[in-house]
Amino acid sequence: MSDALPTQSREIRLAARPVGEPARTDFETATIAVPDLDSGQVLVRNEYMSVDPYMRGRMNDAKSYVPPFALGEPLDGGAVGEVIASRSAALPVGTTVSHGLGWREYAVLDSTSALPLPDDGLPTSVHLGVLGLTGFTAYVGLFDIASFGPRDTVFVSGAAGAVGSVVGQMAKLRGSPRVIGSAGSAEKVRHLVEDLGFDAAFDYHDGDVRRQLADAAPDGIDVYFDNVGGDHLEAAVETLNDNGRIAACGAISNYNTAGRATGPDNMFQFVTKRLTMRGFIVGDSASRRPDFLAETGTWLREERLRYDETIVDGLANAPQAFLDMLNGANTGKMLVRI
Questions:
Q1: Does residue 295 or residue 259 have the better pLDDT?
Q2: Strand partners, 99
Q3: By the 8 A CB rule, do 133 and 52 touch?
Q4: Does residue 122 share a domain with residue 86?
Q5: Number of domains comprising the chain
Q6: Least enclosed by CB within 10 Å: which of 144, 176, 245, 335?
């Protein structure tokens, strides 16, 4: 590596495992030496990184579909950046890539662990959101897991977030007669209806979710895309029509619960209504990625699909961006511009 390249990099580490809601003291910043590259490796200057709800689960020392974050080690997650040094013919200097080593200024990784981004004229940040993991999650969850059809009425919880905002729009683009969303403020409710084309939306702070959903869906719902769990799931079960389907994407209402989370009290309706609920991890659906990119890319180019980003500047502010995201401070995708 030449003298012009960085010799040090800052990174955010997990300092303590949160109990209940995470705090800034659960994170720490460290400065490390940038290692020399081995054959086949690249050095990436990270430009944007993603903070996502699933990261909260990885802060617990518990068995899951991915290993927990290690104490005293850097966190990781989606990032995009520019290759500034390379020992790989596949990824020359100047290539813009996406990869999984966020939460740091510079990333050294094998070229096989980085994906070159197309020169599509779109901001690189969209490959962490609407054309990245969150958009892909919306696509797979709605069309494959929930088996959406053009006659289905859809309810999306957490609808102003990165995944939910895309789910609702995709349902409308595929012909849904009615899409309903829940959100956490009057402004987000306005945004869903006036900007994103939802047919109805409500603020879950305004009263009983079951009642508000029933009012918004007098003829019931056919698909529920669950990002929240808890009282939203209970309300959806109550409102689903016979043979309704639930795509279980997340349960953010329970992520910071220190004790045992309570479940819906109306689960027998799964029997009487013949309901289906299926959890999913989008990484299991890699074969669907070309279809997702083709269809979603077309919607974006035709300006039929809107995406929103909430951007926080500075790596040092990444922990606060994560905490704010868990508390619903973002509209659309929450990103950190490093």
A1: 295
A2: 79
A3: yes
A4: yes
A5: 2
A6: 144
304 inside domain: no
| Mean pLDDT (the chain, rounded) | 95
Residue 22 maps to which CATH number? 3.90.180.10
Q: Distance (Å, rounded) from C-alpha 62 to C-alpha 65? A: 10
Co-location of 35 and 141 in the same domain: no
pLDDT at residue 258 tops 70: no
Check whether residue 137 and residue 278 sit in a common domain: yes
| Mean pLDDT to the nearest integer, 186-209 | 97
Domain that holds residue 21: 8-128+309-337
One-letter amino acid for residue 306 of the chain: R
Distance CA 244, CA 191 (A): 27
Alpha-carbon distances, residue 331 vs 29, 212, 310 (angstroms): 27, 22, 6
pLDDT band at 259 (very low <50, low <70, confident <90, very high): low
Determine the pLDDT at residue 4.
Answer: 81
The H-or-E segment that residue 14 falls in is strand 8-14
pLDDT at 76 over 90: yes
* Predicted local confidence at residue 3, as pLDDT: 54
Whether residue 276 is found in the same domain as residue 206: yes
**Over the range 43-74, which residues count as b (16 or more CB within 10 Å of their CB) and which as e?**
bbbbbbbbbbbbbbbbbeeeeeeeeebeeeeb
Regarding whether 172 and 77 lie in a shared domain, the answer is no
Which tokens in the block code for residue 130?
Answer: 């609407």
- Stretch (H or E) spanning 178: strand 178-183
Same domain, 104 and 222: no
Q: pLDDT tens-digit profile of 26-58?
A: 999 999 999 999 999 999 999 999 999 999 999
- Asked if 106 and 143 sit in the same domain, the reply is no
Site of tokens 């290759």: 83
One-letter amino acid at 123 equals P
Does residue 299 sit within a domain? no
